[in-house]
Give the backbone structure.
Amino acid sequence: MHEPLTLGFVDELRPIPEATVARLPLYLRSLLELATDRTSTISSERLAAMAGVNAAKVRKDLSYLGSYGTRGVGYDVEHLLFEMSRELGLTRDWSVVIAGAGNLGQALAGYGGFGERGFPVVALLDTDPAKVGQTLADVPVCHLDELPSLVEAHHVTIGIIATPATAAQEVADRMVEAGVGSILNFAPAVVNVPDEISLRKVDLAVELQILSFYQQQRTGSLLPDGDALPAS
Amino acid sequence: MHEPLTLGFVDELRPIPEATVARLPLYLRSLLELATDRTSTISSERLAAMAGVNAAKVRKDLSYLGSYGTRGVGYDVEHLLFEMSRELGLTRDWSVVIAGAGNLGQALAGYGGFGERGFPVVALLDTDPAKVGQTLADVPVCHLDELPSLVEAHHVTIGIIATPATAAQEVADRMVEAGVGSILNFAPAVVNVPDEISLRKVDLAVELQILSFYQQQRTGSLLPDGDALPAS
DNA sequence: ATGTGTGAATCGGTTCACAGCC
DNA sequence: GGCTGTGAACCGATTCACACAT
């Protein structure tokens, strides 16, 4: 029984838990707010309140980045902001393409939040000849076949899938083939990618169905006929 | 303040783990696919492959719903579909309002996926007088002040927040006040709601930042100067 | 006195492995 | 023989609680 020697690739030798990684952007957002407020120092307690988590979690999470706090005082906002941005890889831009120039794809392209936060959208991709060549939300619509050259020209690292479910796997395959290293999938379909590619998914209908479950639990037994709450 | 030890409300006496609830919609999707294929029976192994999880997880998850499988055979697709729909509360429609008639709100309203799956969007809400009164993507745009009457008239149970971050908490408060029981928040802000309200969040920028982290880990050490592959 | 950093305890969820039923 | 259902083992993540630094 031998360890598969630090599996994967080299990696720096700090194993930041996945759950922590998922929260770092929350802290980052809070820190940015504090920075514009000219707040110079923040305690785990207050940062926790801002990020919507508890203080113990904040301290443990931040400790994975290093010992950037000062006992009895708190964390220096600027310094923490810097270290966290570095850790998250936000000291540079990461170019993005969005596959699927439909409703959702266009909205995502037009959603200011991306470019501003260091994720410039370099193209929308579609196969519909009526769409290719247009510029929607300031983003050129290219044919999906252009993917490899776009990736090369703009050093695209992230692909967003906003196509119908049926096209999702095909598009993902082509993204991986073209050299995209990370994929965010909005299509309601399971997509498979090689282990070395990062994949996250957001399924809007699934989110509603989860809410439906809990709603059902609360109202279900009381209201067989699906009417609203009786005024308490 | 009458909190019985079994926290919350009565509930049926099976405690379906949160992680399981979040996967049920995935199974549901797979089962719907199977049903249209006229497949009558499915093993945990095959269902797992379709849903992108492993077989042990499928069996444990499904066992929370009841013993609906047949040893040596598998699960009856139709029956499982029925039970799962019931459990998820999908035997009835749940009306939805979307706050924020901007880019994202409009896209969500136009996203066919919702209405089709039992979540009719009854209104977009905004405070911009230029938008109120229009019909976008077949959905009427109403003033946010209309929220209480809309909730009452259409038995709205789910609110989607697609406003700027600054408006999110205010909108959430008004939704809760109006009687909405579940909220899906797309705004990049932490919103607080009472314990009895279900809240889920989807933050697009956060998703990209998480991908950025892992991308960084892989390429980071190799490319001190922040440029991409030394092609060209 | 205050608030971080972190081992230790705990919890929820996943995986294993096999008994039980078809 | 094949596949489900489920205790038991395991693993990652959360929470606790306190020593330690300022």
Remarks:
- The CA atoms of residues 53 and 155 of chain B lie 36 Å apart.
- Chain B has nine helices and ten strands.
- The two ends of chain B are 69 Å apart (CA to CA).
- Residues 1-12, 223-232 of chain B have pLDDT under 50 and may be disordered.
